[in-house]
Amino acid sequence: MATTYSFRSGRSLTGGYMPPLDWISAELAELLQRDLLRELPAAFDLQTVMIEGAGQRLINFASNDYLGLAADPRLVAAATEACQTTGVGRGSSPLICGRSTIHAELERRLAEFEHTEAALLFPSGFAANAGVVPALADRGDAIFADAKNHASLIDGCRLSRAETHVYRHNDAAHLAELLAAHASAARRTLIVTDTLFSMDGDVAPLAEIAALARRYDAMLLLDEAHATGVFGDRGRGLAEAAGIEYDGLIRVGTLSKAFGAAGGFVVGPQALIDYLANRARSYVFSTAQPASTAAAALVALHVVADEPQRRTQLLAAAATLRKRLQAAGWRTGDSRSQIIPIAVGPAADAVALSQRLREAGFWVPAIRPPSVPPGESLLRLSLTASHTPEMVDGLLAALGTNHQDAQAQRKHEEF
Ligand SMILES: *Cc1c(COP(=O)(O)O)cnc(C)c1O
């Protein structure tokens, strides 16, 4: 049967594939009908606070390059030099011959930065989570996971074959209930959560979660992907900011966000790292991250240590932006960070608002299911150290006032 689907850009495809692939175009047509069909966006080449592609130049409010390091000349120079001395690809996984002296140095420096015994580099943060969770928990074990955890943690839980108990988002009381009901029957217990949630910009109740981990002798895996480099006195993340110290603590981070490079890492006790190098399949069976990328990350580590004003100014600017958005009638949820959601609701409305901003010169993507629950589509705005006050003013002017919500708010207050 012929199935037609078309993208916003006008590109369309008439299916009519023969079995066994006929179901694919039917699935796409259904996504289109539900306003959930995603087309690959224009290829953006220039990747700084400005992005450029398809003849358009846009101010970028979509990037996770929170400290503005991805195009920093110091990182670029380090990567270029490493590329010349070590080549582009590593040729194999770390255990065979892929681990360079630059990787070894980066692991040493990461452990120092994170104030842990050891660190292990992965090709990406996704690979780290997908490898670490199944290495820590198996059949007979119990995992307790926040409902809004990142997809890579969810996949890690699925791969683990452990019993996974999902607690309501940021609800430590629900976590306590689930632990009371299921922890004692399990061989090992693992609690898993993002520290800073990637869509809502809100923060896990880490002190309460760590107290529960202690009470149940559970391993605690914290994913600091969006928090590393941004939160904490030294930029280690939210566990540092919350003063969490616990023997069972294992932290995952990424070099692809605030560090402006690419690659994931795990930090913790030496024995844990030795074990993961044996048992995390995404470490053992994947080619090592390019040494040029590791060299850039090494420079980023120095910048994070030496230029704390990047993170303090960013968090102050984010707090101001949240207030100004709220004053204009926009709902920013429970955001406490540089990730600021603008709640919209229906997927089609979110796409339309994103399109309107794009026409005004701003790139703020609409986030739709399955990244968020149905009916909770939003614009995800991320602020970085590279945004100037003029850029932020321009965005607020383009957004204007959200009359609908402002009216609803006034009505609410009258009652
Ligand atoms: C981005 C992200 C990851 C994946 O990191 P990559 O290095 O981009 O693969 C993992 N966890 C969370 C919470 C993230 O936001």
Automatic annotation (TrEMBL):
Names of required cofactors: pyridoxal 5'-phosphate
Among InterPro entries, the record links this protein to:
Aminotrans_II_pyridoxalP_BS, Aminotransferase_I/II_large, AON_synthase_class-II, AONS_Archaea/Proteobacteria, PyrdxlP-dep_Trfase, PyrdxlP-dep_Trfase_major, PyrdxlP-dep_Trfase_small
**Which transformation does this protein catalyse, written as a reaction?**
6-carboxyhexanoyl-[ACP] + L-alanine + H(+) = (8S)-8-amino-7-oxononanoate + holo-[ACP] + CO2
Q: Which CDD domains match?
A: KBL_like (cd06454)
Q: Which Pfam families match?
A: Aminotran_1_2
Its Enzyme Commission number(s) read 2.3.1.47
Give, as in the UniProt entry, the pathway in which the protein acts.
Cofactor biosynthesis; biotin biosynthesis
> What is known about what this protein does?
Catalyzes the decarboxylative condensation of pimeloyl-[acyl-carrier protein] and L-alanine to produce 8-amino-7-oxononanoate (AON), [acyl-carrier protein], and carbon dioxide.
Mind telling me what this protein is named?
A: 8-amino-7-ketopelargonate synthase
The lineage is: Bacteria, Pseudomonadati, Planctomycetota, Planctomycetia, Pirellulales
